[in-house]
Amino acid sequence: MGSQEAKTIAEFLITDFQNEMQTTLRVMAAVPTGHLDYRPDAKAKTGLGLARHITLEDEWLLNCIANGAFTPPPDDSDACGIMSPADAVARYKEKVPAALDRVRGMSGEKLTSVIDLFGTVQAPGVNFLAMAIKHSVHHRGQLSTYLRAMGGKVPGIYGPSADTQ
Rounded to two decimals, what is the model's pTM? Predict the structure, then answer.
């Protein structure tokens, strides 16, 4: 893929990511604070853990793409300071758009540069941008399935939900 094609694809993906961000924020804002420790299985993250994961990893993935190198993933323990859905929403609104803007500012040449993900995947930065969107949507989907069990309501995601009609 050439640098101009990579830049065109990245512009499309960045717009897509921006659209998904609004839905992600609605889902995280819908997490009820009374049952943040809910998890459907002992191996699953808690509701708060998923909100932290989405917030921190969306920022991390985008910054790693912009940096052209992957660093160790962020610590999503209590030490991260995200202790509520409101904290996750606030941090997401503050950090993720800035990280996405860094990717937007990348040249086509940099978008085609291969990045190594800890020896498991080697791909151009633009490919990791597509993966970042899928990663975010995947974990948001997990979190949306927790909402009713936590005593909350599912917001519209790709149209109305049974809770928004």
Answer: 0.95
